[in-house]
Amino acid sequence: MVKCFLIHTLCSVSTLSPGETRILYSRVFGPEDLQSAAPDGELHMEERHLLQKEKLALIARQVQSACSLWREALGRPPSEVTLGGESVALQEAETGVLRLPAGEPYLEECFVLWLGVHSLGFTMVCEPHENLLLAEGTLRSLAGHCLETLRLLGPGSEVLLKSDRIEAMLHHLLPHGQLLFLNHRFTQCLGKELAACIGK
Amino acid sequence: MYASGSESLIKQAREIQQEELRSFYSKICKLLQPQGREGGDTLDCLQRLRLIVSAHKYGRTLPVDLLKRLQDLLCCPSSPEQLQVLSSSILRESIAVCEDRLALRDHQDGRTVSYVAVVILAQAACKSELTGLCHHLLKSLECWQPDVQVSRHVLPILSRVIACSPHSLSEDHVNLVSRKLVDWLRYASVQQGIAASSGGFFTGPRTRQPVPVTEVDGTVVGDFFTVLCVGQGFTEDQWMNMYAFSMIRKWLLTYDIEETSSGDTDDKSEVDGSVMSMVSATSSSSRMLPPKERLREKAFEYCQRLIEQSDRKAAKKVDSDLQKACLVEAVTVMDIICKEDASFVYRAFPCIKALYGRISGDLAFSRTLLPIAQFYLNHSETAAVDSEGVFRQLLFSFPADLFNESMLAFEFTQFCRANMAVLRERVTLYRQSFPNLLKFLAWNSPALVSEYVELLPSLLAPETAIELLHSLLDLPCLAAALDIQLRAAFYPSSDRALWDQGGRTTSSLEAFRQPYYRGMFLYILRLEAGTGDTIDRLSMLHEVLADMVESPRVVRCAQTVPVLLHVFFHAAVQFADRKLINQLVLVLLERSGLLLSVKNYKMEVQRVFSFHLLLLCKLQPSLIMDLSRELLDFTGATTNIYHKEELYTHMVWAIGEYLRVGHDSHCTVEHITTFFETLEAVLFEITQVRQSASPPLYSPRLITVLMTTLAKLASRSQDLIPRVSLFLSKMRSFTHSGPVAACFGEEDSEEILTRAQELMNLLKLPNVAQFVLAPSAQGSSPRWHRDSNTSLPLSMQVLSGLLQKQTNFLPG
């Protein structure tokens, strides 16, 4: 199962300090680290919310540094985006995987799969015992969908305002964080459902 | 691309004023009146609300009436899906404090159930909050019919629930789900479903002949439906087949494990035990099995079929990628099943072996070979199958040919991590192959260093420890050599002109092709331990690689070496005997200068060496005597001071500390005198003051350590005391000379003089000096602190009292 999915920046953002990243979209699937007894009240909810966001920020920072190390090793300068080059950008994207040891930040050990497309990072945190080959394919196809439907490589801010599109996409292609074995026909059927949902 | 526009949008959403926010909330409330929700304005406002609730890490609490409206919108089956998406995501991101929590009702449609479940799962704070959801899911599973639309997402939601709380399902529940999984996995329809038709004018609902689904290569299926079957559309049970297979691994891992320990299953295995299931465990006989075992059987058949189907040539790339992912999953699921019930091993092996034979030659399938290797590791002994070929390929060909595949590198190291103990014990090739395994690390160093910190001790053996140490020190060379190897393959040597244009990079690349350097590169890139040794020509290799030392990959690689050296020494001393420790110290001395000149690399390595040199000496003080000739050579050469001061200083201190009869009975006055004379000559040489001399290139600490060591040695052979005293008395003129004073500064000079004075005073009382300068080995034991009569502080007080008196008696 996938624990969460993130879209975040890999470039430096003027209002943030150098090591920081801006999370543009995040989706956490289901509860994490549940307790058996009911905790008390509102305060706890706020704390949990904050803790969850801090965990995501930590993961995004780790991905940013992993990606920059990777790019540095390749000796490849950050290339400029050519318009309409989403598919090219996706092909040239760097990809990698990290291990989050138990307790840092999740209770159990997890794997972080990331895909760096120019200045954007697409990140997926997977539980152990997950099929990384399938996860990698899924991440790539999710990133492709996002780039295409939200024109992420363009100058707009659709990723912030039209986040419901990502939401719907995840709901169909990665329901509740379940990675799916989809052949091309299943993918097409889901694509049609998705298109009907976001009204295209 | 991330634009400043987005940044200001986030700022606005964060800093929105309370007043404005309130009116925005009430506007949305109005828009969400049960009638007329669907306006474009509603969509736009909800999108903005979504941004406002998620823009900050601190959650926002929405007013109760708005929450109510959003919940109504979410739970109403007639709402457009896009609005349901938005409302579920707003409820998820906000801090919802509502009296009546969301409840699932029986008549809700599948889509709504799934969106409501998103919110319930996101806001659950404890396991009991999931029981309602769980019951609803099980109920809808129980009454599932192919033609009745329930949530297709029932299985994904269920696997999310069991991921966070596996005990929400009772034994009966588990059996119920197992039965359903069997139905979907094994008995889904093989006719195509009606495609979600475009609803054109002319395509009326007409009864068509049922069309069978096809394999990925287009042939009609001859067996049951799997995720590798395609059709124009899919029936509900085919969809469930796909969801069921997607969750089967998790399900088996969660619910197929505990059961085997109970007594009655043993009895059953007697009945349909290995012989039975080896001969025939056909589907007809398996109808009798209890649900869990039946699921095992059907899942096994499903995996076998997937492996068969993966041999077909897929027409689409998506499908050929899916085939690989399915192979990984199928082999892993078979492995899980075989672990639970060993009788499956005999049925699995022919299939796994055939699969291995089919794909082992194709590097495109490299990642699917890892679960196969895992299978061999777990079960080849049970089935008495030879596994050497599999591991030979895994340990030799993968790192050598695919070191630059970062995903494979990661999965490979995870495989090794998970199986460290077994690999070490059962696969003899594992420890031999460390020069090859280090290639993954050299190439992907920052990403994999924490994995190798764990792996390294498992690679270590007494026979290969020394070679492993050399290999670690040569890791930056390995990174450089791999880089050159890749480039050499990229630019064939016929295109000389092409790679000649590279300017600086050509020389190492050129050297790589020259037969003269061939042996050295082959040594660095070797696959196995114990083959070849070119230590004597290492400095030549370093020269050849000089143009690579600034490559980011080499620099990063060099930065990881000190960490690994620490791990190495900590692990090595666990089993090292006298001989090995002596060898290790020799390597420290030899290699401390013989390193690739990457920025800071030598310094960092020498720091680690110094630290472990002291530990090794403490562990085995007699090594000073064993290696006296080498140590004399090392400490006698003043160049070592200028290039390896840290290590040199520690070495000298260790000599002073451990060269005495108490540690090695062979230690004689002659030995002490030899060391004394060598060090005396060194100190004399570096403190020689000529007016023209350049300022000293070493720290004041070296001087004090040398003086102290000489004093220590003299205290053990008292004839030497006058010599050292005379020497110490000359230190004043040394520190006051022009260049030294300018370099060391007031405070440092003062320190040197104070130390010299203290030592001189001590040596005036030879017996006391011997006691203070060479406390017995028990000195650090706790007894000294407990026993008030022999405590060290007390002794020191008495001594300093005596010394004070002595100095008072002395003139000026």
From TrEMBL, chain A:
<dbReference type="InterPro" id="IPR029392">
    <property type="entry name" value="AP-5_subunit_s1"/>
</dbReference>
<dbReference type="GO" id="GO:0030119">
    <property type="term" value="C:AP-type membrane coat adaptor complex"/>
</dbReference>
<protein>
    <submittedName>
        <fullName>Adaptor related protein complex 5 subunit sigma 1</fullName>
    </submittedName>
</protein>
<dbReference type="GO" id="GO:0000724">
    <property type="term" value="P:double-strand break repair via homologous recombination"/>
</dbReference>
<dbReference type="GO" id="GO:0016197">
    <property type="term" value="P:endosomal transport"/>
</dbReference>
<dbReference type="Pfam" id="PF15001">
    <property type="entry name" value="AP-5_subunit_s1"/>
</dbReference>
<dbReference type="GO" id="GO:0005829">
    <property type="term" value="C:cytosol"/>
</dbReference>
<dbReference type="GO" id="GO:0005770">
    <property type="term" value="C:late endosome"/>
</dbReference>
<dbReference type="GO" id="GO:0005764">
    <property type="term" value="C:lysosome"/>
</dbReference>
Automatic annotation (TrEMBL), chain B:
<feature type="domain" description="AP-5 complex subunit zeta-1 N-terminal TPR">
    <location>
        <begin position="1"/>
        <end position="281"/>
    </location>
</feature>
<dbReference type="InterPro" id="IPR056857">
    <property type="entry name" value="TPR_AP5Z1_N"/>
</dbReference>
<dbReference type="InterPro" id="IPR028222">
    <property type="entry name" value="AP5Z1"/>
</dbReference>
<dbReference type="InterPro" id="IPR056856">
    <property type="entry name" value="TPR_AP5Z1_C"/>
</dbReference>
<dbReference type="InterPro" id="IPR055450">
    <property type="entry name" value="AP5Z1_ARM"/>
</dbReference>
<dbReference type="Pfam" id="PF25154">
    <property type="entry name" value="TPR_AP5Z1_C"/>
</dbReference>
<feature type="domain" description="AP-5 complex subunit zeta-1 ARM repeats">
    <location>
        <begin position="322"/>
        <end position="439"/>
    </location>
</feature>
<dbReference type="Pfam" id="PF25153">
    <property type="entry name" value="TPR_AP5Z1"/>
</dbReference>
<dbReference type="GO" id="GO:0044599">
    <property type="term" value="C:AP-5 adaptor complex"/>
</dbReference>
<feature type="domain" description="AP-5 complex subunit zeta-1 C-terminal TPR">
    <location>
        <begin position="451"/>
        <end position="802"/>
    </location>
</feature>
<dbReference type="Pfam" id="PF14764">
    <property type="entry name" value="SPG48"/>
</dbReference>
<protein>
    <submittedName>
        <fullName>Adaptor related protein complex 5 subunit zeta 1</fullName>
    </submittedName>
</protein>
